[in-house]
Amino acid sequence: MTASNEYRFQVNLSGMIQILSNHLYSSPKVFLRELMQNATDAITARTEAEPGFQGEVRVELTGTGDQRTMMVEDNGIGLTEADIHEFLAMIGQSSKRGQQALLDGETSFIGRFGIGLLSCFMVSHEIVMLTQSAKGGPSMEWRGKPDGTYTIRQLETQLSPGTKVYLRCTPDAAHYFETEYVQEALFYYGALLPYPVILHSDGVQHIVNSESPIWLMEPELARGRRAEVLAFGERLLGEKFQDFIPLTTDSGRTGGIAFVLPHAVNLNAKRSHRVYLKRMLISEKAENILPDWAFFVKCLIWTDELQPTASREHFYENEKLEDVRFELGDALRKGLADMAESQTERLQKLIRLHALSMKALAVQDQEFYAMIHRWLPFESTRGHRELGELMSEGETLYFTTTVDEYRQIHHVASAQSMLVINGGYIYDSDLMAMLPLAVQHAQTERLQPDEVSMSFTDVPPAERNQYYDALRLADSALQRFRCRAEVKGFKPADLPVLFTLSQESSTLRALEKASEESTELFSSVLGSLSSGISSAGYSTLYLNISNPIIQRVLTSPDAQMTPIAIEMLYVNALMMGHYAMNRQELEVLNQGIVRFIDWGLRANTDRKGDA
Ligand SMILES: Nc1ncnc2c1ncn2[C@@H]1O[C@H](COP(=O)(O)OP(=O)(O)OP(=O)(O)O)[C@@H](O)[C@H]1O
């Protein structure tokens, strides 16, 4: 056995910077966030040592072109020479991971990984840091390069406690050093910071975060400052909101404002909220901090209890995040419940814009559903109405479970003043089925298309015999569409026919349509599937005997004309029901139209000839 030698891993720093910039950070612009976070942490550390200490961050931009330099200065805790060796010179080492932090992840600092400063190498070939520790000792200069080399020296002059970081921009990063950009970015990251952030650029001073709203730490106070809160939301989130709901949690360590989006949102839209950790922007895209149904709001959230991932763009999915998500969702729900009690107009306005979100929440929460049900909109045979209005009619609310079913029956149902709700849209049939559980005395019942035919009037047998021949012709004309004809009387009289599909015939239609649109092989598979479906797969074309045209068709002496008219009525019924037509049916439609034009024109010429 040969003796093994021990070696030490080497780190290729420029390779690591590549990894960070391409995979960890979403853009080089995050260097400013990392510098601001370090400044914030340094001020926090000094405040812990000197309670009542007032922090400040100054950013200075000087020079032009490739001489453009940025200096970020804080009056925080600073670094001693030993600190520099331990924390700056060692990647992955951080002064911010105390014993407690290791135990429960809790720390009063934002940083914890000991890599953030490296992001500065994405925009500068050198990092120069001048620092004076608040604990005393000489002032120090540290110069670091992306190849992993660094120098340290003691300064001759004593600086006041704090740290200055100097960066000179690389040609690619010049944009990130422009005054306007930096001013915006500082506001973006630091708008909520509790101490002044001041930018000096080319001799001009800008105070970046002049307003520090008092409702930030106590969101309930926001209620009395509506205009101010909405203006702040617009400045920070770039949208003109009209309403908001304050969000609080029991611990008081997470809070925020949920701004109601001023436009309807797609159900699949990304729900991203802006989250501040210890008052510094952490994430613009936090998706997991609120429940899924909260897609009608964009939230401004601040927390000091959640743990960011190394990229800073998300939070660890742990028990605490789960609790926070639940509590924030609960606060939002309570805000809506309060509106339902005392500000119904405000809630109505919100529901009109975000009905889908409200329905998504109501499906999950029966109590909430009971509170807001009367304002939820539904499509019905009485038009688009709010549920409260539909319920006030005191009838059983019949509902379908698919849009197709609703289309099949709504003509007949509405003509007979039967109240039917289209439950085919997302959440609607679930909400209808839940209604009697959520609201006392409410009655709902699922309706099948063939049940509507029960309100048809039968044709007396004597009269029926009269149409025997015509019906036989109709049946044989419709046979190839797997449909049979029946004579009934129904309202409205101007509706000549009604088409209904059984579950099986609906499946058959779908199979036929699919096989028309697919390859030969697949279509033969579909063909053998459809041949397995029994003759119960017949649909029905109801001919309305109260309709004058139907009466004429059924009593027409022209045996050639009857099947063609029936076929045309059949395709017309398909169109009325919004069914996709197969090739055969489209042909019938085309030929029928041409034939009828021909007949019409011929009849006209014959009349003229007679005259
Ligand atoms: N402005 C500053 N004032 C005092 N110390 C600083 C300052 N900037 C950096 N440091 C020191 O340098 C260390 C490394 O900083 P770096 O930003 O790389 O990592 P971090 O902030 O500890 O963790 P993270 O990678 O999560 O940001 C810090 O732990 C801190 O000790």
What can you see in these coordinates?
InterPro entries: HATPase_C_sf, Hsp90_fam, Hsp90_N, Ribosomal_Su5_D2-typ_SF. This is Molecular chaperone Hsp90. It comes from Paenibacillus xylanivorans. Keywords: ATP-binding, Chaperone, Nucleotide-binding. Belongs to the heat shock protein 90 family. By secondary structure, the chain is an alpha+beta fold. It has 4 domains: 13-207, Histidine kinase-like ATPase, C-terminal domain (Heat Shock Protein 90), CATH 3.30.565.10; 214-343, Ribosomal Protein S5, domain 2 (2-Layer Sandwich), CATH 3.30.230; 376-452, Rossmann fold (3-Layer(aba) Sandwich), CATH 3.40.50.11260; 458-502 and 538-610, Heat shock protein 90, C-terminal domain (Four Helix Bundle (Hemerythrin (Met), subunit A)), CATH 1.20.120.790. The protein is built from 20 helices and 21 strands. It has an 8-stranded mixed beta sheet with strand order 5-4-3-6-2-1-7-8, covered by helices on one side. β3 (124-132) and β4 (140-144) form a beta hairpin. The longest helix is centred in the last third of the chain and has 28 residues, at 583-610. It is elongated, with a radius of gyration of 37 Å. The termini are far apart. Residues 34, 37-39, 42, 74, 76-79, 87-88, 94-96, 111-117, 163 line the site of adenosine-5'-triphosphate. Adenosine-5'-triphosphate (ATP) binds at residues 34, 37-39, 42, 74, 76-79, 87-88, 94-96, 111-117, 163.
